[in-house]
Amino acid sequence: MGLHADVVRPAPGFSWKNAQGNTSTLQNVRGRSVILIIAPDVENRTFRSQLQEIQGSYQALSAGRMLAFIAFTQNSAGRVPSNVPYILVSNGPRVANLYGVSDQFGIAIIGRDGNLDYFSDKVVAGQRVLDIINNSFEVQQALRRE
Question: Considering the domain boundaries, does residue 4 fall inside one?
Answer without folding.
Answer: no
